[in-house]
Structure formats: C-alpha cells, structure tokens
Amino acid sequence: MKIRQWEDKGLAQFSYAILSECENKIVLVDPSRDPQPYLDYAKENDAMIIGIIETHPHADFVSSHLELHNLTGAAIYTHSLVKPLYPFIAFDEGVDITFGKIRLYSLHTPGHSPDSICIVLEHDGKPNSVFTGDTLFIGDCGRPDLRESAGNLTATRESLAVQMYHSLRTKLATLPDNVIVYPAHGAGTLCGKSLSNATSSTIGQEKETNWSLQSLSEKEFVKQLLADQPFVPAYFPFSVEQNRNGLPSFRESVNSVPRNSAIRNPADISRLDPQTWIIDARDEASYKMGHLPHSINLMEGERFETWLGSMISPGEKFYLAASSSEQLERLIQRAAAIGYESQIREAFLVQYGEETLPELDLESFRKSADNYTVVDVRNEAEVKKNRIFPGSISIPLGELRNRVAEVPTGKPVVVHCAGGYRSAAASSFIHSYLKGRTNVFDLSESIREF
Question: Does the predicted model carry a pTM greater than 0.90?
C-alpha cells in the first residue's frame, strides 16, 4: 500500500491517493481542480482510479471529482446529506470500500459542516490512518461558521461548534493513538485559525498537543472555537455550490479564457470596459510606476486565490493582467482553482499605464502621522493584538469593497498591513475608487519600521 499526498500551496490544501499495490487500484480523497496529477500518478503506477471521496462540499477550492468520474468511470463517494447534483454513492457511516488489503470506512463527523465525513483506512485488518477533511487539522480543528448560508444544508455556527466538540471526542479521539492523521489543509488556510506547518500527525500526538482535543467543557470549547475566526471570503458559499454541482473540464475551461494582445498604448486601453475591474498581478514597483485605470494590484503570491475571491464577487466579470505570458497562464489556472476562470473577461499583458501611485514621504509621515488618514487592512484579530497607529481606521482587506465608502477624503490616505502584500491591493483599490479626490499612499514594507 502507498499513500501519496499533494499540496496546493496557494490554498494550503492537501489531496490524497490511496494505492493498493497488489490490485493496482487507487482511491482519491479531496482532489484539487486540475485532474492531471492524479491521472499521471495512476499511469506511473499502472493503476486504475476506482473511487473519488469528497469529505464535504469544500468552500475554499473547487474539486475535480466530476471530471475524474467522467474520465475514468470511478465512482464518487460523499455523505448522503450533501445531496449532490452529480452521480454518487452515499458514503455514510457503516459503508465501506474494500480493495486489495485496504478497507476504507466512513465516520460522520459534523462540525465544520453538517455533512462532513472522515475516512478511516485499515490495512491488513488494522487501523492505519484517517483522512480528516476539515474536521481535525494538525494543531486545530475546522471552523464551524461556513455553512450558515451555503449549500443545501445550513446550520448556525453555535450548533455546528457543539457538533464539532462531540465529533472530535466520540469519533476521532477514540481511534488508536498510532493512527496517522492526514488533514485536508495545512497552515495558511482560512478553514481554521491556528494550524501547524506539519503535513501529517497521529491521533496520539493530536491528543497531546491539539487544543481542540484537550479536557474542555462543551461550553469552553464552543467559546474558544468561535473566537477570532478569520474572515469569510466572498467566494466561499459559491464554491460550496459549485462542488455540489461538479465542475466542467479543467483544461477545456482554462483554454476557453479569452487571451488578447498586450496593452501598449492609450488606444489599447480604449478596448476595455472602464467599469470592469482589472486584477493586475505585476510586482508592486511596476504597478506603481504605471498602471491601468480601475485596477487592483493583487500580486502573484501564496494567497492569490483567496484575495481574488475576496475582491471579486462570484459571477462578476474581471480582467486579468500580468507581466509575462508564463505568469498569465499560471494565474488563469490559479483562478480556476476557485472556479473563477469563467469570469475572466479577457487576459492580457500590461506594458503601458498612464496612472501612477505617489510615493510616501516617510519622514513627513513619521513626524506628523495625524496629518494622514491611516487605514489598517489587517484582520480584526491582528488589530486587536496590536494596533500600530492610534486613531487608524480598521477595514480588513476582505471587507474593503463593501466598506470603502468609510474612508474619509479630508486628508491624504496611508494604507498599511503587516508586510506589504495586502496594502498593495488595498491602496490600489482605494486609489481607483477615490479617483483623485485625495492622495493614497501605500506604506508597504516600511510598516516594519513602525
């Protein structure tokens, strides 16, 4: 038997292949949008993919389960409560999948969502590992507030937090201590708040070190779980529904994105709809030296997908701009990881821009910060822990599009985050929104001096 783990670093998401070497058969768990790595793995091992398990309808990424089913004929397994709109086999508690010396069986573990399951793997009749989806992470457990308005089955965060308390204790903590834990996410995901950088663990290790498995009362657990959860990106409910429906072919959908010639002069700009936002993924310095109107400097980085799905609403058309053809292709595929490729109105390179962002006079700001409106776009928990500038306005980047009218225009505006990535996106958006009513400055990496 072999277990292969893949990591999508942009979404801090893990997917898995379980290979029976004696029968050359594979079952996948929570595959990402691009099916090719799983098809390649099957080919490398001269094996057949016979099953795809979805631990729940994911909120932060879209899965290739339906495409893999169409390509290989493999059955899709998920809990009956999901009520998916694709062909599936109900993988409810008491159901198992047996191939070679491997037995997989389902544990219904509501908490992150009402329809969440974990999958226990037995090899040669002994418990070997458990695929915990978004229920148990390394160092944390799944957040319970993503299904209050998403999917066919909704529930309040309080009721799901209570269910999580019991799922962890009655379903997972009772497994043998040596059972290996394989979660669906690692550090950096918004599906939890304090995950470890580790990619696997054991039940025993988690019982010793994971706060969610400690001796807490139900009331204490619920209070701690609900406190300081990260923001919910706009695309999360959209992804839940997409995963319940199933996605079209990854490659065909990516290839259908319109690519157009580079923007090189004012005449090229005239072809663009001035009301459609441009996501400009070039580096911060290039953007500030010259960019297009109505654009957001959302640089290519580890959380590009998350911020794209926060700044652009589900169903909203946008332009995608980059500095090279290679970068553009990467970004189209990353947009597809959250099901946004069909929203790209046009993808192109930027080689000209008549708008600039002014550079902040740091000494002037340091001496008289009161002469500026300071906008802090970090998350609420970060601000609560350390408000860097007294009197600053706190508007997390994930809420900025809905709250930008709160930014006053009586003074120049200085935007900051913790390191420069979020402030680049926020300052460019505020600059585009205010249309010259006041100067907008990005404190960028200089925030570290404060």
Answer: yes
